[in-house]
Amino acid sequence: MKALDGVRILDMTHVQSGPTCTQLLGWFGADVIKVERPGVGDATRGQLRDIPDVDSLYFTMLNHNKRSITLNAKRDRGKAILTRLMAACDVLAENFAPGALDRMGFSWERIQEINPRLIYASVKGFGPGPYEQCKVYENIAQCTGGGASTTGFDDGPPTVSGAQIGDSGTGLHLALGIVTALYQRERTGRGQRVECAMQDGVLNLCRVKLRDQQRLAHGPLTEYPQYPNGTFGEATPRSGNASGGGQPGSVVKCKGWEDDPNAYIYVIAQAAAFDGLARAIGRADWLDDPEWNTPEARLPKLDRMFEAIEQWTRTRTKFEVMDVLNPLNVPCGPVLSMKELADEPSLRASGTVVEVDHPERGPYVTVGSPIKLSDSPVEVERSPLLGEHTDEILTEVLGLDAADVAAARADGSV
Ligand code: CAO
User: Fold this and answer.
1) Pocket perturbation via mutation, ligand 1, pick of 96, 102, 200 by most ligand atoms within 8 A of CB
2) Whether residue 206 has pLDDT greater than 90
3) Same structural domain, 35 and 161
4) How far away, in angstroms, is 98 Cα from ligand 1 center?
5) Which among 410, 408, 350 has a CA at the least distance from the CA of 380?
6) What letter would DSSP give residue 236?
7) Which atom of ligand 1 is nearest to the CA of 78?
8) Which of 219, 194, 168, 146 shows the shortest CA–CA distance to 19?
9) Gap between the Cα atoms of 59 and 63, Å rounded
10) Do 197 and 124 contact (CB within 8 A), yes or no?
11) Is the Cα dihedral 120, 124, 126, 131 positive or negative?
12) Strand-pair partners of 332
């Protein structure tokens, strides 16, 4: 049995934010019915294609464990089918532009009439306010949620992150909202509205930067590289690779950095493990030197401390540095490339990186569930072809007969 066995999701999501949410619910056992426009489908099927006329990796990697039905929600018969699907499902998830579902004729009031138990979950770019009507993509959310203003180096422009905190991050938030609403429905019998704005999701993930904004009123942020020689302005600045916590940290070069852009390791010079670190890098002299042997003494010269650490790390590969520092309890981690992650045996063994077969593209590598439930193991199934399950859903879920299905096909509703 899977955790969400028996839960049926009407998945009207597209692109990335919504699909990441419903994919997670599918991994946990929900029956996810993805609704797509006939002949077109989710736009990502055709975006960034690596193989002509085959669903892109963008689509296949975000839509595992789902069934696909094509449905034109703007035709009368299509609307009637959608209404019946809403009645047959537990959750409706969507991330259309603001107002799109209302324009199809499905307001929250109407949806409650159709099925008072339905949980109606949405991702939008912004919550209520001046920008609520805007269309939003990943990098816009990173910029408007505080990610970009706090990422990068002090002397460089705002920078977006490679991690999709706007899209996939908001999808995660939405998934939590949905299962929470399902849990409440167990007791009340009622569905409810679940809304996640991408700006809010990014800001939630930038929580510590709002912490620092308020600390600024009480003096400089001593763990930031701007301290003690640079200046602080009115807002939380970009902190480069400085550690966000109370312990100093930095990225340092390792052997081979001249040719390998990822020959780096992150080292945290935690006070508790400083003795071992100093000895390992050949600076045992620091331990008797009042200029170096307390965190307070080191604080104004963290740049010089990490230069000394780097002199040592440059003589070893990032994995050799790990081998030396880990047993000394020095927190550190190599900068791993996507190639290294894709090939990492432990990630394969845990199911975090999996190979999936696809009837048109053949085998490909994807990220499996990062959430492991001991009683609800995840089997990653390939993404559906466009409309692959249309007839099956119309007959099995809605009970349409062959003549109804033929009529819906004939007028382009499915
Ligand atoms: N049948 C009939 N019409 C359908 C349909 C179906 N099955 N599925 C979608 N449509 C229609 C919509 O109703 C909409 O029509 P209207 O403009 O008449 O209302 C139209 O297709 C386009 O939908 P859209 O506006 O959502 O799509 P877009 O490509 O123009 O915008 C996006 C995409 C992502 C910017 C927008 O959907 C959005 O802002 N979503 C919310 C925020 C979000 O999730 N962003 C993350 C995206 S991932 O980076």
Assistant:
1) 96
2) yes
3) yes
4) 8
5) 350
6) P
7) 1
8) 168
9) 6
10) yes
11) negative
12) 267
CB 68 within 8 A of CB 389: yes
Question: Of 282, 309, 330, which one is at a domain's C-terminal end?
Answer: 330
Q: Is residue 237 domain-resident?
A: no
Query: Would the CB of 270 count as within 6 Å of ligand 1?
Result: no
CA distances from 355 to 287, 364, 367, 370 (A): 50, 6, 9, 15
| Closest by Cα among 98, 100, 94 to 122 | 94
Q: How confident is the model at residue 246 (pLDDT cuts 50, 70, 90)?
A: confident
Cβ of 95 less than 6 Å from ligand 1 = yes
- 119-124/8-12 β-pairing: unpaired
Nearest CA to ligand 1 atom 16: 100
Structure token pair of residue 343: 């090939």
Tell me which residue has tokens 């499902």.
Answer: 89
% of the chain exceeding 70 in pLDDT: 100
Cα(280)–Cα(265) distance, integer angstroms = 15
With beta carbons less than 8 A apart as the criterion, state whether 386 and 14 touch.
no
Q: For the residues 199-219, what does the mean pLDDT come to?
A: 97
Strands 67-70 and 91-94 come out as unpaired
Q: What average pLDDT does this structure show over 173-187?
A: 98
Is the pLDDT at 21 greater than 80, yes or no? Answer: yes
| Rounded-to-integer distance, Cα 16 and Cα 180, Å | 22
The H-or-E segment that residue 354 falls in is: strand 353-356
- Nearest-angstrom CA–CA distance, 37 and 327: 56
Report the number of distinct structural domains present in the chain: 2
Q: What is the pTM (predicted TM-score) of this model? A: 0.96
* Domain around 311: 248-330
The identity of residue 68, as a single letter, is S
* 22 inside domain: yes
- Is 210 part of any domain? no
Asked if pLDDT for residue 333 goes beyond 90, the answer is yes
Instruction: Specify whether 167 is catalytic.
Output: yes
